[in-house]
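Figure 3 (text version): structure tokens given as input.
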């Protein structure tokens, strides 16, 4: 952890990094009005880097949820916060990139592995935006002990003169509008809806909010499993990309009965197989921190229907899919890349 100098003196000491951010618990449906303390409010769930901004008198830092310094990857946001946000505030939000009318998480990820010269080009061609949805400190005062409704008022006042790339996340208390967002916003890359209680305090590290992720049913090809064919623990699935069947993810861990049900459709592969018997963890999850090998049990490819959220990395699902059912009546050769995942 880096040392924080006098440049951060205006930030409350209680909010010097690392800062524990409030989290959200996943639920299956938009909750009723009394599900959280106070009136339930709804916000879009942005697909980007969750990040909090520390605005000091002489320095601005953008840090990840794990308090990793993201500032050098987001120079345009640091510049905007320096110019538009007063010293002594701490803002919670999401760094995002828009491309072709939708959020582009892959463009953000490329910033982590590019050279300084290429980063400058990325900033020009695909600039980032910051979507603020909470305020933890203002004028050097820690306000996490205030209810969400009051923090929101202070955030709106802070953002009154903002201009892009700084933005204020919208919210609504109208359940019908929230359901419209949940239905329509995935086409823009938003992942769903976050639900908060108007009287909730900001409790870092606690899953005090609720999140409802948009999911779609997708036909994919299962050509391998993890574990033995008689009792697989996960399905490995693929889609046709660039003329080849490529691995795009794995299922969530299978319960014993689900594994037995899937095993009924597993057959030893005939002839050449499109996948190797051993792959890296990153082939299943591009952003995994694990670097070990994963052993696959190859099977004759067949079609399965899965439920997948809208988070797509550009070549794989970013989160495990849910196995819904086998579709042995369908031909794997007829599976097509889903239109909603196309760039």
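Below: residues designed for each position.
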């Amino acid at each position: 952890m880096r040392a924080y100098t006098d440049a951060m003196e205006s930030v409350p000491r209680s909010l010097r990094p690392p800062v524990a951010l409030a989290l959200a618990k996943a639920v299956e449906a938009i909750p009723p009005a009394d599900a959280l303390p106070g009136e339930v409010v709804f916000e879009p769930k942005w697909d980007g880097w969750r990040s909090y901004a520390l605005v000091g008198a002489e320095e601005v830092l953008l840090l990840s949820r794990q308090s990793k310094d993201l500032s050098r990857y987001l120079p345009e946001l640091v510049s905007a916060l320096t110019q538009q946000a007063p010293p002594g505030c701490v803002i919670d939000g999401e760094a995002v990139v828009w491309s072709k009318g939708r959020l582009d998480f892959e463009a953000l990820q490329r910033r982590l592995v590019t050279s300084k010269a290429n980063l400058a080009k990325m900033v020009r061609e695909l600039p980032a935006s910051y979507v603020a949805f909470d305020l933890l400190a203002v004028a050097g005062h820690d306000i996490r002990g205030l209810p969400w409704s009051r923090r929101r008022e202070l955030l709106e006042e802070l953002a009154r003169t903002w201009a892009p790339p700084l933005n204020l996340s919208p919210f609504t208390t109208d359940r019908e509008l929230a359901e419209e967002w949940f239905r329509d916003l995935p086409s823009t890359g938003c992942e769903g809806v976050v639900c908060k209680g108007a009287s909730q305090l900001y409790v870092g590290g606690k899953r005090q909010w609720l999140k409802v992720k948009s999911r779609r049913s997708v036909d994919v090809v299962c050509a391998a499993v993890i574990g033995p064919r008689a009792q697989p623990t996960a399905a490995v699935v693929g889609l046709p990309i660039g003329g080849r069947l490529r691995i795009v993810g794995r299922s969530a861990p299978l319960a014993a009965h689900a594994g037995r049900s899937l095993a009924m459709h597993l057959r030893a592969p005939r002839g050449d197989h499109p996948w190797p018997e051993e792959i890296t963890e990153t082939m299943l999850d591009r952003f995994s921190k694990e670097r070990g090998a994963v052993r696959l049990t190859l099977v004759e490819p067949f079609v399965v229907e899965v439920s997948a959220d809208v988070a797509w990395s550009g070549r794989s699902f970013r989160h495990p899919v849910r196995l819904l059912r086998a579709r042995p009546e369908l031909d794997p050769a007829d599976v097509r890349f889903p239109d909603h995942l196309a760039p």
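Residues 148-158 form the longest helix (11 residues).
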